[in-house]
Design a protein that fits this description.
The complex is a heterodimer of chains A (631) and B (275). Chain A has 24 helices and 20 strands. By secondary structure, chain A is of the alpha+beta class. In chain A, strands 6, 13, 14, 15 and 16 form a five-stranded antiparallel sheet that branches. In chain A, strand 1 and strand 2 form a beta hairpin. Chain A starts with a helix and ends in a 6-residue tail after the last strand. Chain B contains eleven helices and two strands, in the order H-H-H-H-H-H-H-H-H-E-E-H-H. In chain B, strands 1-2 form a two-stranded antiparallel ribbon. In chain B, strand 1 and strand 2 form a beta hairpin. Chain B is elongated. The chains are: A alpha+beta (631), B mainly alpha (275). The interface between A and B is large, with 84 and 99 residues.
Chain lengths: 631, 275
């Protein structure tokens, strides 16, 4: 017996088996080669890795959301670092929460998941859940349904935690009363405005100006500035340099892409379907033929279709199938349609559904846009392709030349599709226009290599993918401006300070006078008046906001006394506030508004608790962020 | 070993089987048994988890109904009992208990919270239960117990909420300066949600303790809003010691100022009276 096995193992069967077995071994791990060698980790939460692709996708989504919100009116580059940071934080938070709820045995059963998906209006067609819609919508988010469902489960678990915390907070009755009292509170307020006019001695002497300038001269330094020469390699310019293309080449291109310029033929037809009942083909055929006879006697096709067609969907419309393209109907049907003229009725045609009687209503032949019509388009796409394939070659030459001849841009400027430009003087942190709106360009211009050593920069990449090399043109060092140049500015500033001091002094005198009794004389002397007392709410607009804000922080006056406080009203003016009385009318019954306020306040408290819980859980977790992989 | 013939080999195999056959069979049975047992256990755990999830959803949904009828209350109570019996340490049970406490009044609510404090596996949820309970105790004016409870908080991240409650207690006891200090500490947390933050700020502002917000030099003496002469009491005294203890020096003006408050602020040309 064993001898037999040994003999057979030399034969062809053994080889087949060996080959079958070797297939899985050969393919094992192949995806890591195809996928470009494993994934990069941006962070680790308790040993669970967060993958860079997922991170970049999330950042991209945030960018899209932001851009659609701002309708493209805002340059997002300056916000990108924040956005990236925030996205990473969110991913870490989500990982921490997910791990916590999973460890706590959270789970979403199929019934809950199903209910959630079926009630999502996104997946509903006319108010009812549609499986097709569901699959289509999920596909449009570049996900498979199992992937989507597992993500949903995760989101729902996190929601269970979040909603639980947010719904569990309650304000006690005491707190509700305080809330109501504070919400309804009104205060009787008057204020005394001390205007600029009280300041008399506001002249600023030259000595004062000089002294201030000497003490603060560093504030009057102009920023260091540079201007640059640069050579720009742009795809657009490169495409322009491509010489006129021969018609023959375009013709070849046209023929290879002929499908995109061809519109398929279309037909519009009515049909009557006769089912084959109980396999009795002859009877069905006979019935079909009798109908054709009636049609030949000028009977209305639509009426007969409505009466006899077994295809109930189209029967209601007089057998009309609307417009259709090749491949949409069964083959025998389509073949017959192709032979009919408009208005012609076919003899019975057999398909797997039964016998069809077809009437062709209209037909559109296959059309192809002629070469002349699409020539421009072809030329453009051809040039673009050429430019793309040239781009990297030129880019490489540019990098080499920039390095080999670090003292000049001249030879780079001779390369194909490259133009030389220069800029005006600009400061490092002054966001200019064109290439100067990009921070990395300005940084490069001020780098040691460019500014101190006077060499060419590396190849720098702009946001649209264009590339450039720059070198220094002019350099203007930081200078302290002469006193004469800044005198007006200093005078203005010192004068403003003097006025401010004067108003504050008067205001404080008034406050002191309140207790010494000399208040009236003081008011008369400076022509000051108290405003008429007003009952105001915390969000009233009747008073200057600084006055209102301070008035609501002043506490409760002890009748018959009032409370007073002095504040800076603006950069130059001062004000003395008098709080005379306060009142709070309790609502007799719980109004819907009050209920809403309470609900909002409770959820607010819940939200705070949730944020703290999250932060507490993060403290417990072991989080590593790989900064080097975030770039 | 070398075998001369096929028969010898067959013999050897038979012998080996006789000696080891039983062990192999037992091994196989055990292996498959373990495999299926494990899968069965996994299935069981999943089913249990799904039951807990479902019971929790019941409690969560019930807490959102504004009008609770008896049937709903009963089914909620059943779900809660089921969670406590079968999933004692789970966060599902802790959250359900927190929700349950919200629906109830004082004593039973505190019992529900106590349950979380003694059973929850997650110490952060225990802390939340402590905070919720302390809130109830503050409303009962049971300040000492509340303070003990707040001192037991495990995670420092909740410190801000504890300070808010401290502030509430101190304010209720009339110690406005300390209350303001507590509220200020509470406001330092970066986790406060906007509505909640403004609520703490409102409570703090209502105390009228202004030092630290406006520079000290700006804190001014108060005066009676009499039609004529304003006489002074320092603001700190008014706010700190409330109304009842007015210094005797003001008594003269108090008498005068019982006049109607029609024009409380002296706008009129009434002559200034000497003090």
């Amino acid at each position: 017996m064993l001898q037999n096995i040994r003999d057979k193992s030399q034969g062809w069967l053994a080889w087949v088996i060996v080959i079958f077995i070797s297939i899985p071994f050969a393919l094992w791990g192949i995806q890591s080669y195809l996928g470009g060698g494993g994934s990069v980790t941006v962070a680790e939460v308790n040993g669970v890795e967060l993958d860079k692709n997922t991170y970049e996708n999330a950042v991209q989504q945030q960018v899209y959301r932001f851009q659609s919100m701002m309708q493209g009116k805002f340059d997002i580059t300056s916000l990108l670092p924040n956005l990236r940071q925030e996205t990473l934080e969110q991913m870490i938070n989500e990982a921490v929460l997910t791990q916590t709820v999973e460890a706590q045995g959270f789970r979403i059963g199929n019934a809950l998941l199903q209910a959630q998906i079926q009630t999502n209006p996104q997946f509903q067609d006319n108010g009812r859940f549609s499986t097709d819609m569901y699959h289509a919508k999920v596909r449009s988010q570049q996900m498979s349904t199992p992937e989507y469902e597992s993500r949903m489960r995760q989101q729902m678990m996190l929601n269970q935690l979040r909603e639980g915390i947010l719904s569990a907070t309650a304000l006690t009755e005491t707190e509700q009363q305080t809330l109501q009292t504070l919400k309804n509170q009104q205060r009787l307020v008057s204020y005394l405005r001390v205007p600029e006019s009280v300041a008399t001695a506001t002249a600023v002497s030259d000595e004062e100006i000089k002294a201030y300038y000497d003490a603060n001269s560093a504030d009057y330094a102009t920023p260091e500035k540079v201007s640059i020469d640069y050579v720009l390699l742009s795809r657009e310019k490169l495409a322009e340099t491509i010489k006129e293309v021969k018609d023959d080449d375009l013709q070849v291109r046209y023929e290879s892409q002929i499908d995109t310029y061809t519109t398929k033929p279309e037909w519009q037809a009515r049909h009557i379907l006769i089912n084959i009942e109980d396999g009795d083909e002859a009877a069905a055929l006979k019935k079909a033929e009798s109908l054709i006879e009636r049609l030949n006697k000028e009977e209305d096709f639509a009426a007969l279709a409505e009466e006899f067609s077994a295809d109930t969907g189209s029967a209601k419309k007089g057998g009309d199938l609307g417009w259709f393209e090749p491949g949409q109907m069964v083959k025998s049907f389509e073949d017959t349609v192709k032979t009919l003229k408009s208005g012609e009725i076919s003899s019975p045609v057999k398909s797997q559904f039964g016998y069809h009687i077809i009437k062709l209503l209209d037909a559109k032949p296959e059309t192809t846009k002629p070469f002349a019509e699409v020539k421009e388009e072809l030329l453009k796409s051809h040039k673009k392709e050429e430019a793309d394939s040239l781009f990297y070659g030129v880019s490489e030459d540019m990098a080499n030349l920039a390095f080999e001849q670090p003292d000049s841009l001249a030879s780079i400027a001779e390369l194909q599709g490259i133009a030389q430009h220069s800029t005006e003087l600009f400061a490092k942190n002054e966001q200019g226009e064109g290439i100067l709106s990009t921070e990395s360009i300005r940084k490069a211009a001020f780098s040691g290599q460019v500014l101190q050593e006077g060499r060419n920069s590396e190849v720098l990449v702009l946001e649209n993918g264009d590339q450039l090399v720059l070198r220094i043109k002019d350099h203007e060092i930081s200078q302290i401006q002469a006193l004469e140049q800044v005198k007006a500015q200093i005078t203005k500033q010192l004068k403003q300070e003097k006025i401010k001091q004067a108003t504050e002094t008067v205001g404080k005198e008034v406050l002191t006078a309140l207790s010494s009794g000399a208040q009236q004389a003081l008011l008369a002397q400076h022509q000051l008046n108290w405003s008429a007392p007003q009952w105001v709410n915390a969000d009233d607009l009747a008073l200057p906001s600084a006055v209102l804000k301070a008035a609501f922080k002043m506490g409760t006056p002890a009748a018959p006394n009032a409370l007073y406080q002095g504040i800076a009203l603006s950069d130059t003016e001062y004000a003395v506030i008098a709080l005379l009385e306060l009142k709070s009318e309790a609502d007799e019954e719980t109004t819907p508004k009050l209920k809403q306020d309470l609900e909002q306040q409770q959820r607010g408290l819940g939200s705070t608790e949730y944020q703290m819980l999250l932060s507490g859980l993060r403290q417990n977790a072991d989080i590593k962020i790989y900064q080097q992989n975030l770039k | 070993m070398k075998y001369e013939t096929e028969e010898e080999q067959v013999e050897a195999i038979k012998k080996w089987w006789k000696e080891n056959g039983n062990s192999v069979l037992i091994g196989l049975t055990l292996g498959f048994g373990l495999l299926f047992g494990w899968r069965f256990w996994q299935g069981h755990v999943q089913t249990q988890a799904e039951l807990a999830s479902y019971a929790y959803e019941q409690v969560l949904n019930a807490s959102r109904q504004s009008e609770a009828n008896e049937a709903l209350q009963n089914s909620t109570a059943n779900s809660l009992k089921q969670l406590r019996d079968d999933h004692t340490g789970s966060a599902y049970t802790a959250l359900a208990s927190l929700l349950d406490a919200k629906q109830k009044k004082q004593a039973p609510a505190q019992e529900s919270l106590d349950w979380v404090i003694s059973h929850s596996e997650l110490k952060e949820l225990k802390d939340l239960a402590r905070l919720h309970k302390a809130r109830l105790l503050v409303a009962e004016k049971n300040f000492d117990v509340a303070k003990t409870l707040l001192a037991q908080l495990q995670n420092t991240v909740f410190k801000s909420l504890a300070e808010e409650l401290q502030g509430d207690m101190l304010a209720a006891q009339g110690d406005k300066a300390s209350a303001a200090e507590s509220y200020d500490k509470a406001l330092q947390s970066k986790h406060l949600q906007a509505t909640h933050r403004s609520w703490i700020q409102q409570k703090r502002d209502a105390l009228g303790v202004s030092e630290g917000i406006i520079s000290a030099a700006n804190v001014v003496p108060a005066a009676t809003p009499a039609p004529e002469v304003p006489a002074a009491t320092p603001v700190e005294k008014v706010t700190d010691k409330a109304t009842q203890t007015q210094p005797a020096t003001t008594s003269a003006t108090v008498a005068e100022s019982t006049a109607p408050l029609a024009a409380p602020v002296p706008i009129s040309a009434t002559p200034v009276k000497p003090q």
